[in-house]
Amino acid sequence: MAGASIGGGDVATAEGGGPRVADKIYAVMRMVLGFLFFCHGAQKIFGLFGVPHPDLPTGLVWFAGLSELIAGSMIAVGFLTTYAAFFSSGLMAFAYFLVHQGSALLPIENHGELATVYAWVFLYIAARGDGPWSLGGDDGGY
């Protein structure tokens, strides 16, 4: 991104030793997606924000809901982010094929866009790591 700038500073380089602008945006994205995933778990477990999907077995709803609560929290705060995001990516891929794929081929046709986006973005987060503003440190590690 050489040459790209925001507010006069280069996006690709850190000035003054702090995180790059891109790293800060990544951290905010990680926090927001983790929070949204947590909200999906709260919807399934506590009945907040609407009613969970009625066509799934109770055990499956509880497993998915607890997984979303725990992994969403971990991703949002940046604790063991790589593991939580990798697990969540697989969970969303499984959810896509279990719930959506049977009704149509494409996500736009079977209402599986959100599961698809979550699966791919969580896979990216798993590859990228914690990032700045995380309990795991800002070195991009586990």
Q: What is the succession of H and E elements?
A: EEHHHHH
Strand content: under 5%
Overall, the morphology is globular
From the alpha carbons, calculate the radius of gyration and give it in angstroms.
Answer: 17 Å
Q: Give a short account of the largest sheet.
A: 2 strands, antiparallel
Question: What's the multimeric state?
Answer: single chain
Low-confidence stretches: none
Helix count equals 5
Structural class: mainly alpha
Order of the strands making up the biggest sheet: 1-2
Helix content: 55-70%
Number of domains: 1
User: Could you tell me the number of beta strands?
Assistant: 2
Mean of residue pLDDT?
86
CA(first)-CA(last) distance: 26 Å
Topology:
Blueprint: E1 5-6, E2 9-10, H1 21-46, H2 58-77, H3 81-100, H4 107-110, H5 113-128
Helix pairs in contact: 1-2, 2-3, 3-5
Care to describe what's here?
- The structure is a single chain.
- The protein is mostly helical and 142 residues long.
- It has one domain.
- Helices cover 61% and strands 3% of the residues.
- It contains 5 helices and 2 strands.
- The chain has helices at 21-46, 58-77, 81-100, 107-110, 113-128; strands spanning 5-6, 9-10.
- It has a two-stranded antiparallel sheet with strand order 1-2.
- The longest helix is centred in the first third of the chain and has 26 residues, at 21-46.
- It is globular, with a radius of gyration of 17 Å.
Brief overview:
The chain is 61% helix and 3% strand.
